[in-house]
Every structure is written in structure tokens, then in C-alpha cells.
Sequence to fold (301 residues):
Amino acid sequence: MTTYKNILVPVDFSEPSKKAVTYGLTLADQLRARLVIAHIVPESTALAYAFPPQTNEIEKDQEDKARAEIQRLLPLQYREKYAMQMIVRTGTIETELLRIVNDERADLVVMGTHGRGNPGRWLLGSVTERLLRKLPVPVLTVSHIGEEAHTIELVSLERIVYATDLCESSDAGLEAALALAYGAGAQLTVMHCVYYRDRMWWAPSAIPDFDNLRTKFLAEMRQKVDAVISRAGMPEIPIEFLVVEGKPYEKILQTASDHAAGIIVMNLESKSTLERALIGSTAERVVRLSSIPVLSVPPAI
Fold:
């Protein structure tokens, strides 16, 4: 059974990363997990060659400031209640975060994402996208449009939407969605989207025999869910099954909106064990466009 024992939240002290802390705290509370807050001070490579002693002093000063900022970031009642660990390191952000995931045995990473208009930060398309390709654990990306001040507090997660393509590797995402829904006490909607790119040419009004297709896919989803629950020894939770027709990323976002979902769960596609085919995929579009957090689950290794 999937369990989340160690949750890592990387922060850069921006509003999106503060929102990520909110979800990290919420999940740590609901899943009874340890919370790790990490900040990476970018190493001053150029300065190191010209002014080695000063560079070490600058980096140490930046690390001290980051520790103090993390203390200010988390309200006192949360620091006292949760098993929280603070990590501040200097180095390359991507390299250090991968190392922390391994060292701390993180089984869930929560990251804030920025729009493309903020070129100096952890943009989706740079560090976040590369981590989505490489991390062996699920990543919850928390979008935040705008830079208004965000208050860190626990949020309610009453419904979760899991979008499945019914492939063999989808069991990893399904198990993650079930574990998350069970831990949060949320209702789970399992959905599958049927889409034919050339439908407008041969079936402009509707897909022929779509009712039978829906019945077939509904039965397949139920069978998969029952198998995962039985194999993982999970208790029963409220589950809704849904089959829709249309462009997958549009229907996933629409379904999440219609159901007032708190989190979308999706599988990441796998081109090989070395690199995931995230670019241009449904998963990447949903991550980019969603106004609610998206949990991206890598294929089981």
C-alpha cells in the first residue's frame, strides 16, 4: 500500500512556494507524515574563483538568512505540532534537491510553480520540469497565478480527481490517488477520457456506439480499482467513475472544476527509464494550466 511518510517542500520564499508549504503542511497533518522544508542557496561559482574567502562568507550568510526566513515562514503553532526538519544547502538547485530526496527518503515532493513571466525563479519548463522527469517519487505541483500575499494555513481536501489512460503503468497513479483520498478523507473521482483526433471528419455529431464504449471503460476502471484495493489491502472509500469524450487535458480540467476538486492526480508517461515523455503530453498541459495542485505520479520501477 502506498504510504507518504516523508514530505519534502522546496521553498524560494516566493508566494507560490508559500502556497506549496500550505499543501505540504496539510498533507503532513492528514497523512501523519514528517515534513522537510528545504532551501538551496545558489553557489557563487564565478565569485569563488576571484574571491574565495569572501565567497564562503557570502554563502554562509545567505544560508543563515534562509534558516531565519524558514522560521518566519511557518507559524509557531505548526512548527511545534509537526515533526518538521529544516535543510539549507548551497549548490545547484536541481542537484541538491535530488540529493535531499534520496537522503531524506522523501516519498512526496510539493513544489510551487511560477508563470513564464518570472525568468529568475523555478519556472515550469526549467527546474520543475526537469525534476518531474527525474524524480522517482510523486510530485505535487502547486500553481499560483499572481503574487498576492498568501497566508500559510491548513486547507480542506474534500474531493480528488484521478485521470487514467487505463494503461498498465496506471496502477501506480491509481494507488497513489487511493492512498491520498483515504488519508485526506476525500471522495475520489476516477475518470477516463476518450478522444479521437480525426473524429470531426468521420463522426462530427458523436462517436458511434459511445454508450457501449462508456460501459466497457467503466467496467475496466472498476476492475482496476478493485484489483489495486485488494492487492494493497486498502479499505473501501467513496469512488465515482466517469467516462467522457473530448480533448483529455480540457476534460480533466473541466471535470476538476465541475467537481470542485482539491487535487488532480495523473500518471507521467514513460518513454524509457532514463527520460519521461512529459513535453507536449496531457500531463504537462494539465500541470501548466491547472489552478489547483496536480500530483504527477511516475511509473512504478
Q: What stands out?
A: The radius of gyration is 21 Å. Residues 111 and 141 are 5 Å apart (CA to CA). The beta strands are 6-10, 34-42, 84-91, 108-113, 139-143, 159-163, 187-194, 239-245, 263-267, 294-297.
